[in-house]
């Protein structure tokens, strides 16, 4: 097993007033040659958006974009005709494909919005753009892994245009589970949203992460009550 620890304090950080953002990988004004991407995982941004503020309409193409609100709600509009609100507990997935234009705003005028936005490079290029979102109950990931994104559309998953899987887990202190990869040639990016955990014998605190490759199974133990995001992507 190969592991690469990404500490929360080492992320790129910019505060623009309306947006307080942290980048796990090189993005925008942040450039770190040692943090370009992890396999097909290209971006993981941790954004706090002030009330009433947001990202004006802007284009994307040939990227799988997953957004996960952690606090607050996000208002979304796009060139496919979608206009919706993504609440805490929801997961949004856009396959930008041949090209889309969209905007993202804090749905509240007064309260902050905190959300994760993750970009994954696609398996197939120039597909017809696609949009979806689902609500996932935290109770259904207590002390277990809840897969929310997968290569095939399921009753309880969103479909991504890549051999990738996104999972969430909420563990009580002292609880342990084993993560098993879905396919050969993949790696796992384990990101601690809240709390603290031991992942493959690496101690991680809030917003720390570890990139694992060359393995098929990894142990996860909660050092405190914790919430984790687990992103499995091709790395070969």
Report the mean per-residue pLDDT as an integer: 97
Structural class label: mainly beta
- What's the structural domain tally? 1
Please write the CATH class name: Mainly Beta
Give the CATH superfamily: Jelly Rolls
Tally of DSSP helical segments: 0
What's the order of the H and E elements?
EEEEEEEEEEEEEEEEEEEEEE
Which segments are poorly predicted (pLDDT under 50) over 5 or more consecutive residues?
none
Tell me which CATH architecture applies here: Sandwich
Distance linking N and C termini = 14 Å
Q: What percentage of amino acids are in beta strands?
A: over 45%
Helix proportion range = under 10%
Q: What is the fold named in CATH at topology level? A: Jelly Rolls
Task: Describe the model.
- With 236 residues, the chain is mainly beta.
- The protein has one domain: Jelly Rolls (Sandwich), CATH 2.60.120.10.
- 0% of the residues lie in helices and 56% in strands.
- The chain has no helices and 22 strands.
- It has strands at residues 2-6, 12-15, 19-23, 41-49, 54-60, 64-71, 73-78, 83-87, 90-95, 100-106, 113-120, 130-135, 145-150, 158-159, 165-171, 176-180, 186-194, 197-199, 202-204, 209-213, 217-222, 226-234.
- It has a seven-stranded mixed beta sheet with strand order 1-20-17-22-15-13-14, with no helix packed on it.
């Amino acid at each position: 097993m190969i592991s690469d620890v990404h500490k929360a304090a080492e992320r790129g950080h910019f505060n623009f007033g309306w947006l307080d953002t942290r980048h796990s990988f090189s993005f925008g004004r942040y450039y770190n040659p040692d943090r370009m991407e992890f396999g097909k995982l290209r971006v993981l941004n941790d954004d706090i958006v002030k009330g009433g503020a947001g990202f004006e309409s802007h284009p994307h193409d040939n990227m799988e974009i997953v957004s996960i609100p952690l606090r607050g709600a996000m208002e979304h509009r796009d060139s496919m005709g979608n206009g919706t609100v993504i609440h805490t507990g929801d997961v949004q997935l856009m396959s930008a494909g041949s090209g889309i234009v969209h905007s993202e705003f804090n749905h509240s005028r007064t309260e902050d919005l905190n959300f994760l936005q993750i970009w994954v490079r696609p398996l197939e290029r120039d597909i017809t753009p696609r949009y979806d979102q689902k609500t996932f109950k935290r109770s259904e990931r207590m002390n277990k892994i809840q897969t929310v994104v997968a290569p095939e559309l399921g009753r309880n998953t969103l479909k991504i245009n890549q051999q990738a899987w996104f999972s969430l887990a909420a563990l009580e202190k002292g609880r342990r589970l084993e993560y098993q990869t879905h396919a050969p040639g993949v790696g796992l990016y384990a990101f601690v949203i809240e709390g603290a955990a031991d992942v493959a014998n690496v101690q991680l605190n809030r917003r720390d992460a570890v990139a694992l490759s060359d393995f098929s199974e990894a142990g996860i133990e909660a050092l405190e009550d914790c919430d984790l995001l687990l992103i499995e992507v091709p790395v070969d």
